[in-house]
Amino acid sequence: MEDKKLYDLKLEVKEIAGITCPTLQCQVEVLDNREIVKCKNQIVLGGLEITPSCQLSLNVINGERLLGSLKISFGTLFTESLQGKFDKWFKLKSEEFSNLRAKISAMISKTEKPKVKSLASARKSSKASVKEPKCPFLETLASGKCMNTEPLDALWRGRDANPENCIKISIEPDSPTRLDTESAEITAEKLEKMNFDQLQHMPGSQLKQSLKILCEETKHYELISLNLAVKKQELNSRVQERRVLEKESQENMNKIKASWAVAANEYSEMNEKRSILNCNLIDQREVSKKLEDEIAQLKGSLGDLVRENMLFKTQRLQFEDCALAKKDLENLLKHSQEKKSILLEQIAKGRSEIEQSKSKTAKEIEIIKKDVEGIKAKIVFVEEENKKAQEENAGHKLKINDLRAKLSNPSNLKLQVKTQYEIFQNESRNRDSLSSELKSLHNSLHISNQEILKSNSELLANSKILAGKLAVSEQCLESEENSIQDLQKRTFEALNKKVYFEQMCCIRADVSQVVEDLSKLNSFYSDCRGIILSDLEAASKILMEESLKVYGQAERLDQIIDAVDKKEEELEGLKNTMGEVKKRQPPYVPVKDDPVDVTLAEYLNAKEVQVPIKFIRQEGGNYTFGTKKVYVKVESGRLLVKVGGGFTSIDEFLSIYTLIEQEKADSSPKANSGLMSLAKFSKDASPGTVAQKFIGVFDSLGKSSKKS
């Protein structure tokens, strides 16, 4: 037991590092004292029974959450003397913060225990002050020295005069108001234990009862004394029977010992076989554990392969979907390329038609320009002719004026007028025809010019329409290419989403499978719990019954072992006596003239353990060793022995033939078979080994009963 002394402890947590939290608190626990303080607040604890093995517990908390803890003994803090002070950093155990530390300063000092006044003197004084009440009249009455002559009537009348020093005694027989102690049964054993004072305080009824008991005891003892001779003869007969039974039990004990020796040998062989089987079983268990580990690894790899197979299947499905989408996209691309080629062909045709129409319009414009130039030339020619006609008209007017002047003669005038009038009519006719022709030509030129303008405007409008169609078709192609790119992006995104969702589905399926397995295990556990508990209770009852049986057998075994130990002590005594007898065996005395016999004697007398079989010398180096005839010689300082075949060293010879000759000597009729068998049994079975063997037998019986 450690000597516990009283100490005063002052402790302060100065700083906490490795965490930033303003609301940290420290919970300090020493023995049964527990304090919760903030940092830099001192704790003072007094009157602590501290030993070096006592522990200081420090917990850093934030509200109700534990952040770190420290447990350290006072012996490591203050050494075994439990004195002094320290100011150190300590690392705290924490799952959240790996570098949580606290700076703690503490000081410890011894205090004296408060002196407690001994109550022995007070108790003695109280015992001395309290005295047992005594009645002087009863004392004198019991001793027979009563000198009081006052009659009993007077004493009875004044019995209430001094009630404090009065003792009331009821001397009436069979009083109904007697105490329980008076009505207690009295036996002869209680009477033997009673002293004189108890007999003095005993009432009359109990005295009568005790006297009756004593009379009955005396009568019983008288009867016993009368039957004492008969009992003595019965006792002698029983003693003789007991001796016969002891002899028979001794013989049975010797038989049991012999059978025990055989059983012990069989048990040792069985134990060796069992140890071998246990070793083999352990090896097989190790092999089975290795195989189970390999099976677990194979199961894990199989699970991984199954999972990879599932992933490969999902990827194959994804690739099949991708292939289908790719085929759709290729079909769309082919269709779009076909449309594009058709549109390009149409554009090329339109462009060729536009170029042809342009070339045609250019040729027609050139023709029209040539026609316009011819018409302009004709107009110039007509204007020139018009000018010539006007000039001719002016000349004609002059001629008319001349003619008017000439016509002043009426005869010549008529003729001239007629001729001139005819000429004028012809010329007017020619002029009218020419003007009508010019007007018709002008109209035709105007109409052809308008038709050319209309055709030119129509061609320009057609070219603009075709250019718009080209721009629209190019925009359609660009929009279709953009839509194809968008479709490709959407397909890739859809494939990624599909892969993600399939993976999520697989994970959810695995999680749901795990949850189902856990629920099945839980239900199986809940279903099997009652059955297992009932089986355990039944098994515990069976174990208790079997343990009680084994306990009874163990008690019997203890009794047998005690008897065996006693017999083995006797055997040890016999062995000691036999050892002393063997030690008293005289040394080998050689023949001085024979060097072989001298070296043999030196060898035999120098051995620590004497050889039980004697060498008996014959002539010429021949000896008898028990029943063997041997030849002994000395070669290079070594003793060599020849038995039938070649020579061997004397050590090998003794190690081989000593036991053989000793067994032959033990089995000979001259030897004391009983004593040798007891000695052999004592060699084979020590006091502990026999008990251990019997315990092993009962253990095997208990195990077999448990298994059943």
Give structural notes:
- The chain is of the alpha+beta class and 708 residues long.
- Among the domains are: 5-110, Immunoglobulin-like (Sandwich), CATH 2.60.40.150; 586-707, Metal Transport, Frataxin, Chain A.
- It has 13 helices and 13 strands.
- The protein has helices at residues 74-78, 120-129, 136-143, 152-157, 188-193, 196-200, 204-226, 228-406, 410-583, 595-606, 650-667, 673-684, 687-707, and strands at residues 5-17, 25-30, 33-37, 42-50, 55-62, 65-73, 84-91, 101-110, 615-617, 622-625, 628-635, 638-642, 647-649.
- The strands form three sheets. A five-stranded antiparallel sheet has the order 9-10-11-12-13.
- Strand 5 (55-62) and strand 6 (65-73) form a beta hairpin.
- Helix 8 (228-406) runs antiparallel to helix 9 (410-583) and helix 9 (410-583) packs across helix 13 (687-707).
- The longest helix has 179 residues, at 228-406.
- It is elongated, with a radius of gyration of 74 Å.
- The two termini are 47 Å apart.
